[in-house]
Amino acid sequence: MGRAYESPPALATRQPGRHTDPGSDRVPVTTLNELIDQAVTERPRRDMFRVKRDGRWIDVSSQEFALGVCEMAAGLRALGLQPGDRVVLLSENRLEWATADAAILRCGAVTVPIYPSLLREQVAFIVGNSDPTLAIGSTPAQMEKLRAAAGRAASLRHLLCIDADPGQSCLMLASVREQGRQRLGAQPDLGAPARVGADDLATVVYTSGTTGDPKGVMLTHGNIVENLRACLEVFSIGPQDVTLSFLPLSHIFERMAGHYTMIHAGVGIAYAESIDALPANLAEIRPTVMTGVPRVYEKMYARVLGAALAGGPARRMVFLWCKRSATAWARARIAGRRPGALAALGHRVGDALVFSKLRERTGGRVRFFISGSAPLAREIIEFFYAAGLPILEGYGLTETAPVIALNTFEHYRPGSVGRPIPRVEVGIAGDGEILTRSRCVMKGYYRNPQATAEALGPGGWFHTGDIGHLDRDGFLHITDRKKDLIKTSGGKFVAPQPIENELRTTRYISEVTVVGDGRKYVVALIVPNFENLRQYAGRHQLAVDDLPALLRHGQVLGLYGHLVDKVNARLPGFEQVKKFRLLDHEFSAERGELTPSLKVRRRVIAQRYHDEIEALYAEGTGGAAP
Known about the structure:
Elements: E1 4-6, H1 32-42, E2 49-53, E3 56-60, H2 62-78, E4 86-90, H3 95-106, E5 110-114, H4 120-130, E6 134-137, H5 140-149, E7 158-161, E8 171-172, H6 173-186, E9 201-206, E10 216-220, H7 221-232, E11 242-245, H8 252-265, E12 268-271, H9 278-285, E13 289-292, H10 294-308, H11 313-334, H12 341-361, E14 368-371, H13 378-386, E15 391-396, E16 403-406, E17 419-420, E18 425-428, E19 433-437, E20 444-445, H14 449-455, E21 462-470, E22 476-481, E23 486-487, E24 493-494, H15 496-504, E25 509-515, E26 522-528, H16 530-539, H17 547-552, H18 554-568, E27 577-582, H19 602-608, H20 610-618, E28 623-624
Parallel strand pairs: 2-12, 4-5, 4-6, 6-7, 7-8, 11-12, 13-14, 14-15, 26-27, 27-28
Antiparallel strand pairs: 1-18, 2-3, 9-10, 10-20, 15-16, 16-17, 18-19, 19-21, 21-22, 23-24, 25-26
Helix pairs in contact: 1-2, 1-8, 2-3, 2-6, 4-5, 7-8, 11-12, 11-13
């Protein structure tokens, strides 16, 4: 194994309203039950949660939430839920998700969250593998998936639904809570937290399964609590903050960083209505801190570029000058240098023309964003920094609860994923694979000892499956997923993610997948940013009513060929994209092409677009495929 690095025990931030770990001056919490109880009693809020109902935002206080959790726990115990039992939770982000999860943990049981976007067969696999006692679904559509999966689990005794399910017999979650409320009068202990410790299982989170069937990651109370406490030592949030939750709570990134950490620090949580309603909800809630994934920031960036470059030649020229100057300003500030006069002027002009509008669209109060799940292009990080919307990019996996490394205001290096968080060790194996060791690492994979043995090596080192390196200052840099590396027929290894990230920084590309394993060269499937492409077509008097014809137009192919060539110019020959195909639709999570956290499922893409890929190689090298 190569050089290892362990971060310092704590790092201060330069953010206003500095706030250290809320539990640091008290008896440290060791379980999620203690964490929730302490937050409710010591950092109560009248708006612990905010939900939108019938067109208006409703505040839910800490006391209301705590009462709901106790009543729900009593109701679940009345149904026979025992410590250690698994409970499937298939729901969108909503107050009932938070209440049900806290009640399950209060009973000493184990939450098995399922992404609501998963298909019926995927839900059935998880239900069968986790063998739950109860299953909770949100809408009639989600309940249909659970009913179809019920035969896979012999232990499954009850199906509970959050919303009314006309014509179907199931227990309403509200009725279970009401039954618990009635029982609490005579048996108050039914609402008390079960005796669980840091080493007890809290959740089984199934990986998104970019290859093969998903694996159930077993995370303890201690894994998650240790991870959030370490994160709170390196960035500052507190009761003065509000967050807007839109990433799936089924994903450990949002659940740890956007849910439990916010609760522990006393931050108010508002639930976005949907990803499509995110722009409107940002303006309404005006969050101060948010978690997100690269796809969200990439779309925001592309939207800004599209709007700024849609004007006349003079406006485009001014914007591009401002963007270059602002990038120089950001790089100087990040490096601790004073920006030059020209860079400072460009930044001021850019702020007046573009950046101030971007801040306004995000609500005008954002102190910082946190990005995880996949790499984010350095160009986008610098752009947001110049806009006064710094993005703290981090890195982790479901198996590590999840954060391993994180950029902070004190130690900030775009292009890296930051330094390891406190008490987390990182090492680099001989083949470049990133290894990690800490109290955040999972117990193992549920009912999968072989996969557990493969992932957890000697000395407690977890094999991440990612390729990367540590620089001389201890910042971690990710190259790609080990399994995603492309080996050409000439024996050269190509990391597709950096190439894809570069291509996605252009306003005309929404998504891209680079393929070429076992081939002479690599090719790309490109999903255009259709809104910006139509604007381009309008400016050049190209017909936009026939999208397939537009994508075959020589001028459009020339545009994308130019974009690919610009990226190729910075790559060695064996990494250059020799051919590409423009697709006439977005990749979709519903079709299984994207994971719920919006990462591309490469195996699915390779299978679904097999004919298009084969055509690229059949046509030889050189530019676009018509």
